[in-house]
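Self-study notes.
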Amino acid sequence: MLEIKNFINGNFVKCVSGKTFDNINPANNEKIGVVYEAGKEEVDLAVKSAKAALKGPWGKLPLAERMSILHKVADGINARFDEFLEAECLDTGKPKSLASHIDIPRGASNFKVFADAYKSVANESFLLDTPDGAGALNYSVRTPKGVVAVISPWNLPLLLMTWKVGPALACGNTVVVKPSEETPRTTTLLGEVMNDAGVPPGVFNVVHGFGPDSTGEFLTTHPDVDGITFTGETKTGAAIVKACADEIRHVSFELGGKNPAVVFADCDMDKAIEGTTRSVFANCGQVCLATERVYVERPIFDEFVARLKSSAEKLKLGSWDDESSNMGPLISQEHKEKVLSYYKKAKDEGATVVLGGGEPKMSAELSAGSWVEPTIWTGLPESATVVREEIFGPCCHIQPFDTEEEAVELANDTKYGLAASVWTENNSRAHRVSAQIEAGIVWVNSWFLRDLRTPFGGAKHSGIGREGGVHSLEFYTELKNICIKL
């Protein structure tokens, strides 16, 4: 049985209290590890270690050497690719085919991308005229934010954690990471890679535990934490904002979504079906950017529904190491019950169940896992629960529309604004509609296509701030102006 410890100041430690919780494989609901829950003592030690490293070896390291170390971290992940892959898949249940192409390579590349981005960012300077004619020179300098608390989610554990840790370390900060209690393995394994790459003790710390009255609360309320970056539920984000308001801590949040896809009659139907199948069902629908509302122009509505059903019927549920499977379980029994409760609400509110709507029949060894069926509904009003609330499962509701204006109105009729997809072969319409949709990112004839140099984040209840490229540097650094009187 694997013991998963906290990683503090370059060492793996248990906890003073001795409290542990189980690490569960969601594919079969079996216990696969024991995780040590960090209390106030461990969180305080982690933050103090991060603060000391900030003032000490990491803060004094030449830029070129810091960037070289981050490249070694990326190389270290890739050198242990299979270990990270197995750890990620055991924690999440996701298929090997998905994690090997997205989670692990993208998780590693985040260190190189942001190290290289930081080296090429220029600061501004201005020459100011003064009454005496001598002038003054103003120029900007970037300094690290300080100790950054990184609270990462369970759906893409390595990728979304390094998406924050990579730029934070590139900018010279130190971090204390609290991964989701559901997925502790790859974040812990990264501690070994950090040591091997020569990252000084205290620069990267990991504390395990839960949210309220546990590790998460102890970390977000710690007085020596200078910034908090979080990916997760909107409700949790609101609680963190309240917790850190008194200390005026800077925050960067990517929160929930109820993302629309708008499919016009002039779309390439093959592209739209393939893309929507991925955007609804990839990672069992457990992607912040996933599509849960699909709006289809009426002339092609029936064909689209039939073809999306046919495409989803080809999905194969199975264990992570089954080469033929392309869909795993939900993350936990608790989340399974939540998603199934929405499946029931859809039926109770009068949905036409086009596909799924329940639990699949799995093999004996997987029967106790957190499995649900890929599900498609039609026939519900926009006021229906499953159309309004984020479900975070492999499901969508499909609704027809008649005009472009109606499509935009339907897409924007939500408190969220994270992502959207538009499917059309008319370039003018693509530009026009995308500009009107209230979301942080709009894909046209694609989904989950990411250039890491571009801004990423949500509008409305879907987040605060932007990360990616220079936008990450804006959060992870303090911009200082220096004025020199000549």
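Second protein, same conventions, sequence then structure:
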Amino acid sequence: MIQASSTARLPAGLARRILAIARERALPAGARLTELGLAADLKVSRTPVRAALKALEATGWVKAGPSRGFVLKRPVKALPEGHEAVADDDAALYVRISRDRLEGELGAAVSEADLVRRYGVKRSLLLRVLGRLAEAGVIERRPGYGWEFRPAIDSPAARRESYRFRMLIEPAGLLEPGFRLDPAWVEAMRARHRAALAAPWRDTSSVAFYEMNAAFHEGLATASGNRFILMAVQQQNRLRRFLNVHWTYGHQRVLVNCREHLEMLDRLEAGDRDVAAALMRRHLEGAARLVPQSFVAA
């Protein structure tokens, strides 16, 4: 029998993200997981994807397929919400690094030794979090030594521009002629939002909340059927990751976000795409109004 807690023993990063992809796409038992497809989704080479799939095989979540590759042994919705997410210690450090980078306490280039001293953590924990940040596309190894943060939305003006851009792109995506909503994705997304509405809020909850929020907007961009809209939303998700992980608006704003997302899904399922597009614009306008004049991430 597969134990849900077994995911805590998986190598940090890719294995959890593969499970998250399976959950977001509501993949059924027997769904094929290819190294090539996952490498493209995760923006890494096939070698680490192969290692992550082997780790998932060892814990019973996937098995070797009839041909080359792996298949999912059971739907990931069987895994309790949040078990595939980053551990509390990892999330706490992730949030601290995000905050310090946004507030100018960390420069563009950092070393592992300096970060270990600054945060008083074990190198193994630091490397797990740096690996997760690298997989998210917000930091990368420097040639030969240290790490470097990639460009991000790091000022109030840039954030307002980002929202203006998203107001142009995301509502339009809902009106694309090729728009097709996957019912399984909607069901999975509803479940994640209901769980977020019911769960108590902690500072480290911001990591899982951002991942769910990003998955919602990216999923609707995927449904648009327009690859360029999807690419634009994916880029925005990467650039705004730190801003949303360093969450300063508390639980009430989380509840508002979740309810607005669910209202959009209701309208889309009813075929009211014009209304859903208007709701998306209002949703983004509301978030944009929260951007402060002086930089404190929200």
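Instructor comment on the second fold: The first helix runs from residue 14 to 24.
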